[in-house]
Amino acid sequence: MKNIMKDSLKQKAQQLLTRDGLFTAAQHLVPQQKISEVAGRLAASQNPIVKKAFVNTFAKAYGITLEEYARQNLADFKSFNDFFTRELAEEARPIDDTEQGIVSPADGIISQIGYIEQGQILQAKGRDYAVGHLLADTNNQDGNYYEGGSFATVYLAPSNYHRVHMPFDGTLIETRYVPGTLFSVNNVTAQNVPDLFARNERLVCIFETQYGRAAVVLVGAMIVAGIETVATGKIDRSDSIQTLEHNLSLKKGDELGRFYLGSTAIVVMPKSAGVEWSQDMEHGSVVQMGQLLGVANKA
After folding, report:
1. How does 108-143 read in b/e, with b if 16+ C-beta sit within 10 Å?
2. Which pLDDT belongs to residue 14?
3. How far apart are CA 109 and CA 122, in angstroms?
4. SS3 290
5. Sign of CA dihedral 237, 243, 247, 252
6. Mean pLDDT of 217-243
7. pLDDT at residue 34 in the model
8. Phi, psi (5° rounding) for residue 34?
9. Average pLDDT over every residue of 132-151
10. In 3-state terms, what secondary structure has residue 138?
11. Predominant location of this chain (predicted)?
12. For 65-89, how does the pLDDT look when each residue is reduced to its tens digit (9 = 90+)?
């Protein structure tokens, strides 16, 4: 038994000493909230020197050009936040019009896509998390309701367009702000941090749709300075779950919200939608907002 425990500890130590392990371990040690707060203040600054330094450096580092955007000059943005949430030019992202099609809510990369089994969503190879936990289900009902349903997780890289749009037609009936950690949400962290998306700060948006009750979850991350939706405005951080009721009808492709610095959007569909994801949609697929992810086959 001692040898088994010794081997287990040795294996964990070796994992931590890898580059990915060190990156993940460091996130446990740093003051995540304080770093994000400081980043938020700098990103919101309209001081011309601060703004220019941040915008120009970021654009150069990530190879960002403005051909697809409504504003074509870096000097046209009021702050780094204004630049980061820049709006697309008209018709830059046509919304797929397939009947009962479910479209990507954002530009990014498919982190995972698939079906909910035994109340679990796939986070990364070998790692699952509970859908009820993700949705902050205080009544312990969502796990059962979404059993056999489907999900799509879209990771937004720093260079991406950072507004989130509707993947389907629906009426927003509830938002739940859920406080939490602020781990990075890239592939390395997804592979190494258990329950990543269900423990990070997030905003859960619940919709009534023709398919039943569906959700879009906006997940915060390290240095994410804020989350905003068209129904709530910018969310004020708090230490407890904050629930608001709404009655806002939105069409597929309408803007739902935006991230102030990058993160992840997760679409959760009920079994009654009968979603069949497109065969070319898999882990690592690059997608654009409005692109077809799959088709619902509601009976």
Report:
1. bbbbbbebbeebbbbbbeebbbbbbbbbbbeeeebb
2. 47
3. 15
4. coil
5. positive
6. 86
7. 53
8. -65, -40
9. 88
10. coil
11. membrane
12. 999 999 999 999 999 999 999 999 9
Residue whose tokens read 């919304």: 95
Where is pLDDT greater, at 276 or 259? 276
| Burial (CB count within 10 angstroms: exposed 0-12, middle 13-18, buried 19+), residue 293 | buried
Residues marked as catalytic = 107, 165, 263
Strand partners, 128: 122
pLDDT tens digit sequence for 37-66: 656 677 889 999 999 999 999 999 999 999
User: b/e per residue, 184-208, with b = 16+ CB within 10 A?
Assistant: bbbeebbebbebbbbbbbbbbbbbe
Instruction: Supply the pLDDT for residue 30.
Output: 46
- The whole-number pLDDT of residue 141 equals 75
**Interhelix angle 2-16/19-29, nearest 10 degrees:** 90
Token pair, residue 161, equals: 């367009």
Beta strands in 162-262 (DSSP E): 163-165, 170-178, 202-209, 212-219, 226-229, 233-234, 242-250, 255-260
Phi, psi angles (nearest 5°) of residue 253: 95, -15
Give me the amino acid identity at 122. Answer: L
Check if the beta carbon of residue 156 is closer than 8 Å to that of residue 219: no
Tokens of 108: 């990014």
In terms of phi and psi (left: phi > 0; alpha: psi -120 to 50; beta: otherwise), the region of 136 is: left
Whether residue 281 contacts residue 113, with contact meaning beta carbons closer than 8 Å, is answered with yes
At 86, the amino acid letter reads: R
Tokens of 225: 């300075």
The structure tokens 């990075």 sit at: 184
Dihedral sign, Cα of residue 6, residue 11, residue 14, residue 20: negative
- The token pair that represents 244 in the structure block: 């608001």
CA distance 233 to 139: 26
